[in-house]
Amino acid sequence: MLKVAIEIPIKARPSERVPNKNWRALCGKPLAFWLLDELAEGCPAEWDLWVDSERVDEDRRITDRYGDRFKFHHRDPWFASNAANGNHLIHQFAVSHPGYEIYGQAFVTAVGLRSSTICRALERIKPGGRDSVLLATNETGWWWFNGRAVNYDPDVPAGLPRSQDAQVLKETTGFYAIRRDVLFETGCRVGRDPAFEIITTDEALDIDTADDLASAAHLLLQRGGAMAQGTTGPDPLHCEH
Q: How far is it, in rounded angstroms, from Cα 139 to Cα 137?
């Protein structure tokens, strides 16, 4: 079996748009626990799950809940700044822990992501497969970027397909995985020959704004998450009692 590490960035510095985002109450438990629960319960025991933060030693909530299921990586201050992106984080993690064959990166803001999806995605980069994998949704319609059409030719008479045939893949930001050799060669979490694991819009939901929190609460309530936690109350964002 391939040696797999899943890096889970949890920034301790407060979010600018959603204060205390990772630890906000969401349908009965802190937001971060939705994905951490999913990984702890659904990922193979042979995988190493690493929480990556600049202050992991000051917060015992994770070890109190999960025991030794998660390992901890203490990131340098620069990697907790706004200058650092996902490529920086996974590369600095791999440099510190070079003994793995596959490196994954999962974000706790993807509260609807399933561990079965992560396991299925990693199947795509076993020996003989693609060099990396990322999650995406299949979108239709006519798309533009930087003033140019992406998936059709607006200035060609025959360049206008039916909208349902004008498909594009939209990258989501919940999970990435890449082979060690490609990560060290490129410094990036997506290689030159990536696979795309298509997911539902529910799994693609990422918490970035207060409106996203409300959407997540609606999704989790639909799944029965709050009821499973034994919670009640009119506000699902703050339903801990």
A: 6
Superfamily of domain 4-136+170-238 in the CATH hierarchy: Spore Coat Polysaccharide Biosynthesis Protein SpsA; Chain A (3.90.550.10)
pTM over 0.85: yes
Tens of pLDDT, residue by residue over 204-227, are 999 988 889 889 999 998 887 444
Q: Which residues of 107-135 are buried (b: 16+ CB within 10 A; e: fewer)?
A: bbbbbbbbbebbeebbebbeeeebbbbbb
- Enter the DSSP assignment of 111: T
Cα 174 to Cα 44, 58, 105, 126, distances in angstroms: 19, 25, 8, 20
- Rounded to whole angstroms, the Cα distance separating 51 from 57 reads 11
